[in-house]
Amino acid sequence: MKKKLSFLLILVMGLILLAACSSKDEKAGGKAGDGEVSGEITVWVHPFTGDADKEKKMWDEIVASYQDKFDVKVKIETIPWANRDQKVLTALAANNGPDVFYAIPDQMPQYANEGMLLELDPYLKDNDMDDFVDTALLSTKWKDKTYGLPILQEAYTLFYNKEVIKAIGGDPEKLPATWDEFSDWAKKAKDKGFYALSYQGGGSMNGTLYPFLWQAGGEVITQDDEVKINNEAGVEAFTFINDMYKKGWIPEDSITAMEHDALWNGGKMLAVQGSGISLTNLQKSGMDFVIAPPLKNKEQATYGTTGMFVVPSNSDNPDAAAEFIKVVTNAENQRKFNTVTQYIPTRESAKDIFDDQKYLSQLAEYTQYAQPGVIHPIGRAIMPGIQAEVQTMMAGEKSPKEAADAAAEAIKAELAKQ
To answer: What is the pLDDT of residue 282?
Structure first.
């Protein structure tokens, strides 16, 4: 999969340069940034809910608000989530791709680094950027340039079973806020025959190592290619995970587990990490639960993806495309979009859609702590190597320091391929 994607990126770069040269005189909206907004654009979106009719109505309203300002024909095309990387790359290579498409944080830096995305900064001078949640904007920047505007965000945090809290003598009104406080509850849970936390060691680093790494004040790799995963903060995060496993605070299969649903649903676990999707499932289950703020060690941090819209560099109508992104991510349209999709708006002023919803309003407060992952072209590629070292550590074959150092070497090996 990685080799195919890398090949496509190289192929696309050459073809995009050719396409850009051949289409300069054919742009329907004039030259980028000249203020002329006309013609037509194609926008690729995904099925964000299971209700196609509701989403069509939403997009019709959003497009109408754009056309109130600009005389541009907009074609909304819904493409499936499956194989979206290949579909986007192939379309761009053939110069028949969209003018706007949806991207996530581990896609954006790959595309931007290869020159495949339009820099948006020249278009944003009149856009209210201060209203965006700071952590949402992190995912839109590569090398200090903006390549997207965010429309949705998530925040993962700990959901606690109130029955287990009661069983260990805890207070659901005073949930753990720090590593030390969580460790105290974890010991009590273990003593009472409960697991403290679900740890899905076979899953994404975004849901396992990274939140603890950020909470320790650490970082995986900078945008200047400085590998930091094995500094003091990194080793502290590796150590915390290793301690949880050795002490039996997390299940025996945590090294490779993909889920612990049976343990959680069966009331055998104190807490799980979750987001808005977890909230929906919990409310259906009838479990009595409570949500805590993200944990803090040196920093208070968690994971939460950000969804954004971007413009390919070979768009035939960059001005109209950039203006569409500004309109679709304004406060009014974020209210429309996120009311339908039930994601958290990335504009502070649009979060009022959840004011009357106890749990979603709580999660919306936590996006200020939500890191979008590793913003780097190799962000996705380095995960298996890091995961393997964490698993080796948990299996008792390496110390936390040895595992962190080996993870750093794995990252450097991926950098050398660039």
So the answer is: 86
